[in-house]
Amino acid sequence: MVHAEQGDEPTARSGPKGRLRAVSGPTMAGASVVTAGIAGVVVQQGQYLLGVAIVVVGGVIATAAEIALRRSATRIRSDRDAAQVSGSTTDKAPDMLPAAPDHFVGRVDELRRLTVELERSDSTETMVISSLEGMGGVGKTSMAIHWAHSIGDRFPDGRLYVDLRGFGPGSPMSPIDVMASFLDAFGIKKPVDSSDLPMLQQAYLGLLWKKRILIVLDNARDRDQVEPLIPDTPGSFVIITSRNRMPDLANSTTIALDVLSDLEAFDLIRSHLTAKIVAANPGAVEDIVSICGNLPLALSIVSATAATMPDVPLGGMVDQLRRSRESIIRDIRQADGGAPTFVFEWSYEQLSASTATAFRLLSFHPSTPFSLRAAASLLGKSVEDSAAALDELAANYLVSEHGQGEYAFHDLLRDYATLLRSTTDDHATGTAATRRLVDYYLRSSHAAAAAINPLRKQIRLVNNIHRVKSEEFRGFDDAASWLDHHYLLLLEVIDLAARADLNDHAWQLAWAVGDSIDRNLHWGPLGEAMQVANEAAARGNSKLGLAITLRWLGRAKMKVGAYDDARTRFLGALELANSSGDKNEQALCYHNLALLEEELGRYAEALELTQLALPRYETGKDASGEGRGINAVGWALTLLGRHREAVEHCDKALGMLRQIGDRQGQADTLDSLGHAYRGLGDLAASVESYRRAVAMYAEIGNLPAEAATLEYLGAVFVTMGEHGRAAESWRHALKIKRDLGLPGAEKLLQRLEDLRGARFPRPIRWAKGLGKRL
C-alpha cells in the first residue's frame, strides 16, 4: 500500500496505483521547474493565492472523534440519487460565528426585514439571500453577527462564517479557499487545486443539499466572489455584507444600512458609559454624535475610549475631538467608503506610549485574527505586557476580540495603523518585528509537526536571535488542530518571509507545515507555497532547501499525472541532495522516483530505486525511514509477484516499526502483508493483516488508507465466498470515499450491486498484488 512518506503523516492514496510506501514527501499541485545548480534550481513564479485564515470548527483528519462526523457528511450531489448506505449520525454541527457584539443597539427595522426574509425562505422553493450594504464602519458585520446569534437555533445543521476580505490589505478570499474551509468545518477533506473550482463546488453544494445551514459571507467584494458560494436549493439562508451593491445577484434582497439615527446613536453611547456620566453631560453626548456623523464604528471608538477615562469630563473630550477633526485634511468619508480618521487619531492619542507602539506594530501581522502569544512575539514583549496592551486596545475598540482567544483589526483601523507605522517607526523596528513574527510561526509550526510525528527526521532551524517562544502542544490532536486552523495564515507567513528576505525561514516553514496541509488534501495551496519557498531557498543559496522544495513540487506534478515534469524535479532534487550530502533527503528523492515508476507500472525499476533509498536511511540513522524503506522493498517485491520474499521483508519492517512506535509505518506494512499473503493464497493470513491495518488506520485517523484497505479486504472475502462480510467492508469503504470525495466511489457501488445480484460466478483474479479486478 502507499505508505506515508518518511517523516510525513498519512497521505491520501490514489487507488490501486501509487502505493509504494510513501517514505518521501507529501503531494502538492505543481508548477514548472527550471534547471539544476545551486543558483538556478528555481520554480517559476506562478499565481500565489494568499488566503486569509478563518475560524474552522472541526479538526483534523486524524482525530478519532471526528471519524463519525465525516461518515455522516452529506454525499456529493452526483451521488444523491444512488443507493444510500447506512452509517452513523452525529449531533455535532459547525458553528463558525464570531462572538456576538457586546454593544449592539438599534437597527430594529433592518433586523425585522432579515427575519421576514428568513420566514420567506421557509415557504419558498428558491434560495433566499439577504445582502446588507453600506459604507465602511456603518455596522454591517455587527448587525449580521448579532442577528445570526439571535436565530441560530433555527439552523441545526450548522452556522458558517467567513470574512471574504473584499476590502483592505491583502488579497480577497477566493471561492475555492472558502469552499475548502467550509468543507473542513464539517470534517470533509477535499483536494484543493486552484484550477478545479467545479470539483470543489460540486462537493460544497452536495454538502448543503437538504440541510438547514446559515451562511454569513462577510465583507464581500463583488458578485463574482460570492456567487459560487450560494446554495442552489432551498433550506439554507445566506447573509452577505458588502460596501458594494450587487443588483444582479439572483434571489437577493438588499437591505441598505445608513448611519444610525440620533436616538440609536445616543443608545450606543449609553451602552458604553454610565447613566450618571450621560445624564451629567447631555450636550457633550449630542456633540459626540454630531462630530462622529452618527457612524457606528466612530461612535463605538469614542464611547469606549471615554469609558476608560471616567474622571475626564466629556466636554473636554469633545474639545479634543474637534481639534483633531480640524487637523485632518481628508474628508470624514472618503470616496472608497473610508472612516472618520480624526476619531482614530483622537482615540490613538489617548493610548499609553507602549500600547500606541503595539497598535502600530500589530499591523505587520497578516490580515487574519492573531493570538496573544503571536502578538507577544511580534511586539517583543512578555505575554503579560502584551495582554495588557491588547486589553487597552480592545477597551478602546481599536482591536476586537474575535473568539477562541484571538484578536482582529477592522480593516479601516488596520489601514490607519499601517499609515501611522510608515510615518513613525524606522526600518530597523519593522525588520525586527517581522523577524520575530516569522520566527514565532516557524517555531510553532515546527513544534506542531514534531508533536504530530515525533519520528520525523528534523531539520536544523535558523537561529532564534530574538528568543521567541513558540506554542506548546499537548499531543497529536492539539498540534494537528492548531496547524489545520492556521494553514491559510501560514501560507501568508511563508510569503511574508520571502518578501522580507527571510529566505531560510520561508523554506523551513514550508517544510514544517507541508505534512499538515497535505494530510488535509490541500495540494493546490501547498504547491503554491512550495513555489515561493523554492525561490526563497534559491536566493538564500540553500541546497537542502532547494532539494526539499523541488522534491515536493515533483510529487505535485506526479499527483496530477505530469510524469515527465515530476521526474525532472525529482532528479534535480536528488542532484542537490547529493551535493549537500544529506543522506535522508537523498533517500526521500530515491523513494519518490520509485513512486513515480510504480505509477508508470515499471515495478522492477521501482524495486531498484527502493533498494537505493534503503542504505541512505541506514546511514542517516533514520530508524523510521529504514523500517518504512524495508517495507517499500517488500511492497515492490509483491508487485512483482515475489510474495514470499515480500513477506520476509515486511515481517522485518513490522518488527522494527513496532519497536520505535511508528503506527503509520506499521499500518502500511500490515497492508503490504495483506497483499503478499493474498498472493501466496493464504487468505486467512491476508484477512488478519488487512483487519489489523484497518484498525490502525482508524486509530490514527488515516481515512483514505482505511478505505483502500477495506476495499482490498472485501475483495478477499469475495474470493473466500463470504459475500456478507465483503459487503460490510465495501459499505464501510464506500461511506468514507463519499464523505471525503475520494475517487472510486461509483465503481465500488457497482461492486456492491454486483454482489447483491450474485454476479460473481468465479473468484476475483488480481493483477500482481494491485488489488484490481481483471
UniProtKB/TrEMBL annotation:
What is the protein's species of origin? Answer: Actinoplanes xinjiangensis
Alphabetical keyword list = Membrane, TPR repeat, Transmembrane, Transmembrane helix
Designated name of the protein: Tetratricopeptide (TPR) repeat protein
Looking at the record, which segments are called Disordered? 1-24, 79-99
Q: Which residues belong to any copy of the NB-ARC domain?
A: 110-271
* PROSITE patterns cross-referenced by the UniProt entry: TPR
Q: Which residues cross the membrane?
A: 20-42, 48-69
Q: Which GO terms describe its molecular function?
A: ADP binding
- Which Pfam families does UniProt cross-reference here? NB-ARC, TPR_12
Q: Where are the TPR repeats?
A: 667-700, 707-740
Question: What PANTHER family is this protein classified in?
Answer: HTH-TYPE TRANSCRIPTIONAL REGULATOR RV0890C-RELATED, REGULATOR-RELATED
Against InterPro entries, the record matches this protein to: NB-ARC, P-loop_NTPase, TPR-like_helical_dom_sf, TPR_rpt
